[in-house]
């Protein structure tokens, strides 16, 4: 059950229509998870500073069970997420940052229990 959160200083009107759905499909493909399990949040127009600069930027947080736990996994994921984000947001790679967080099934609550028991 991947969680993807995109924070950007770009105003909402500069984001492509359907960006959340595009990120959902891309995440499913990149992480090898069904789209029905992917959760996406997009927050735009945020006051942000990346690497000391307030120029337009974005930060992506990717959290998931079992597929973001190693440097080798994340190296491949990073490259593919950067391809999606640079194309969708029109930002150069140096204005984008990605953070990966591995999750355990007991850390995700769903249907009155945790994923461990589903």
Automatic annotation (TrEMBL):
Function, as annotated, reads: Tautomerization of D-dopachrome with decarboxylation to give 5,6-dihydroxyindole (DHI).
Listed GO MF terms: D-dopachrome decarboxylase activity; phenylpyruvate tautomerase activity
- Which cellular component terms (GO) are annotated to the entry? cytoplasm; extracellular space
Pfam families per UniProt: MIF
Keywords for the protein's UniProt record, in alphabetical order: Acetylation, Cytoplasm, Lyase, Melanin biosynthesis
Q: EC number(s) for this protein?
A: 4.1.1.84
Family recorded in the similarity comment:
Belongs to the MIF family.
Name where it mostly resides: cytoplasm
Compartment list? Cytoplasm
Q: Report what the protein is called.
A: D-dopachrome decarboxylase
Partners and quaternary state? Answer: Homotrimer.
């Amino acid at each position: 059950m991947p969680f993807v959160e995109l924070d950007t200083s770009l105003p909402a009107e500069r984001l492509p229509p359907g960006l959340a759905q595009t990120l959902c499909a891309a995440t499913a493909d990149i992480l090898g998870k069904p789209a029905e399990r992917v959760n996406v949040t997009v927050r735009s127009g945020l006051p942000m500073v990346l690497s000391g600069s307030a120029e337009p930027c974005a930060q992506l947080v990717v959290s998931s069970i079992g597929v973001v736990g190693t440097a080798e996994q994340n190296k491949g994921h990073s490259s593919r997420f950067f391809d999606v984000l640079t194309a969708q947001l029109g930002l150069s790679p140096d204005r984008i940052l990605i953070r990966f967080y591995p999750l355990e099934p007991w850390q995700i609550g769903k249907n009155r229990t945790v994923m461990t028991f589903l």
